[in-house]
Design goal:
Blueprint lengths: L1 H11 L4 E3 H6 L2 H4 L2 E8 L7 E6 L13 E3 L5 E3 L8 H5 L6 H16 L2 H14 L4 H11 L13 E2 L4
Parallel strand pairs: 2-6
Antiparallel strand pairs: 1-3, 2-3, 4-5
Length: 163
């Protein structure tokens, strides 16, 4: 699955792709920093896969290097990441407009529900705020191939070749 998520980074043009299985293991504060991109069916996997990304607008060398402290026995213990207060996590997301995140999230939910015309409106706003966004552009291109009308048998999941 890790290889497929990495391949998905090329499809969605994102540095990080996260499966819904990993998402379920994240802390509540970490979940606030992810963005849902799509819900897909991939060959060889019975369960549809919801894919998320962690937006990085300002990459830093050595980002997310684990930090350790000694426990009572003197063993190294990894310090949990404080996504909301750690300046490193704020710095890598500098310039990420909350209005973009809201429009993109709204667009994904409308798309998954099959309201592709409304999803197009939300995604158009998102792309005005962040024109080079890979996930939004990718889903827009997919919807455009259907003239922004969800297929009659749309179940909120699409088959994605190459993933």
């Amino acid at each position: 699955m890790a290889d497929r998520l990495e391949a998905g980074s090329k499809i969605f043009k994102t540095p990080v792709n996260i499966s819904h299985w990993l998402y379920a293991l994240l802390s509540p504060s970490a979940r606030k920093f992810r963005r849902k991109m799509d819900r897909i069916r991939i060959r060889g996997v019975d369960t549809p896969l919801t894919v998320y990304t962690f937006d990085v607008t300002n990459p830093k060398p050595g980002f997310a290097t684990p930090r350790f402290e000694k426990d009572e026995e003197g063993d190294d213990m990894q310090i949990p990441v404080d996504f909301e207060n750690d300046p490193e996590y704020k710095e890598i997301r500098e310039g990420l407009d909350p209005a973009f995140l809201e429009a993109a999230a709204n667009g994904v939910e409308l798309y998954l529900k099959g309201d592709w015309r409304s999803a197009k409106t939300a995604f158009t706003l998102a792309l005005e705020l962040r024109p080079s966004d890979g996930p939004v552009s990718h889903v827009m291109d997919y919807m455009k191939s259907f003239d922004f009308d969800a297929p009659k048998d749309w179940d909120g999941v699409r088959d994605l070749d190459g993933y």
